[in-house]
Design goal:
heterodimer, A: ABC transporter involved in vitamin B12 uptake, BtuC, about 0% strand, globular, B: alpha/beta, six-stranded mixed beta sheet, 8 helices
Amino acid sequence: MKYKATILLTLAAIFGLALSHMLSGSTNIDWGELGLWFSSEPSIAGTVFFEVRLPRVLIAIAAGAGLGVSGLMMQTWFHNPLAGPSVLGVTSGAGMAVALVVLTGIGGGWLANAVAASVGSWCALGLVLFVASRFRGLASLLIFGLMLNYLLGALVTVLQAEAEENALQQFVFWGMGTFGQASLVTASAVLVLVLAASSIAFKQHENLDKWTLGAVTARSMGVNESRLQRLLVVLTGLLAGSITAVCGPVAFLGLATPHLVKLLIPYRSHTRLIPMTALIGALLALLADWGVKGWGMADSGWPLNAVLSMLGAPLVIWVLLQRNFSRS
Amino acid sequence: MKMGETKGNEHVIRAANLTVGYSGYPHVLSQIDFQWEGAGIHLIIGGNGSGKSTLIRTLAGLQKQRGGNVFWGNEDVSQISSTRRTAKMAFVQSLPPRQSELTVSEALALSGRKEEQINHWLHMFDLLGTTAKSLCNLSDGLGQRVMLVRAILQDTPWILLDEPTAFLDVKSRQVMWGQLSALVSQGKRVMVSSHDYHLLEGNLDLRSVTAIRENRLHTLNPTGTFEDWNAHI
């Protein structure tokens, strides 16, 4: 299929899914009443639409697109197809920082969480970059990420054990991942951030392409290695941090989305990979949210990370089986 | 600086009191004064770990020297912007692009050259059948050949190759050396570090042979034999 047709089809699918999310549920939406939301006497339908469903759809789109793009950037930077914010401990770093502010009662507001999460992911990413140059082969870096995840997870567990019940409950729900906690303001803010970060990443498409050819070759082709690295760290940290702050540590989207894109299109240049990854990420997130809302027998539905793991894990195993990792 | 001066040695690579190596390690080469000029193949030989790669990367401006200067013409390499550097020097590293998923045509499109020009070189190097394949799915020999075409498309007076055949099988090595001569016929200056210099014995395009021994550079006779050269490393 042609690239433009694929883009248009994906956009249409996103739009359709988003619409179906916004129209389905126990409250019927009467379009005529929605305008009342802006008046002094908002209807229930208006409140449900603008304060529950619309933010949920917007944050799902933002999280899917943002995590997908940050996963793609990490896979490109580390020359490692299994890199991603959750695999390399970046999400855990954000989670650890949020746990610190929520469970100790210092913060709790979304802005405090977002700042903490971004700082947390930058620290984790800085650590990964610091050790990455010492590793040979693809597996060592991944095992380091796994250990970092264990370590940060253990610290969070200790914090939980020491926390008071109210804060703990809030944190446990956040930890399962959800698109249902965002307000219209936070969802819009994250979406704008994701759009901005993705456009900045897109501007680097040539440098990212050159980078895949190897560090020395890229340098000889005019790539400023340290500047590119700084930019990727800032962008990945911002994306993973802000999304984690609002949605919790969302699993698999960052790792799996670029691979799904590569199944769908034959192109491998970042001019096409970045837009396509953002779109497919958004689509995957909306699909997963159907799993969360649609099949759940319980009122709260299934936890997002459970659904994403059921979708993502088989995909990643499939990728592993397809690729030959002996030639690292 | 006079105009004529610039013109005359514009394409000379000159090491001035150059010391190369890595910080925290003994210097690979100390205070060398040397220059390479003229169309043809400039071969750099030396034993394992003698510093061939370090020297060639430093001369290419891709690695910081520990002391002294590298000049391209009259310009100090460290003062040349990365954009202008790419117009002066192309580089091929020894490791083939095994990790890159870019297709051959995507990788070569990065050169910004017109399609006819790209196709011309693809044809010259017998790569037309590979354009839709990802670099990571090519054999090392083919991958390295694509990287050579990429370097050619950069259209620079110099192409520096750091042990380009180190990962290739015997047949691919022979093919690659033959292709270097094709470059020289285009008026290119090619500097190459290698262990495979027996394949260059008697090559009429060989312009200079430099041996690295005991942290010094030694000029050898390009029309000499493989055994002559071996005696110096």
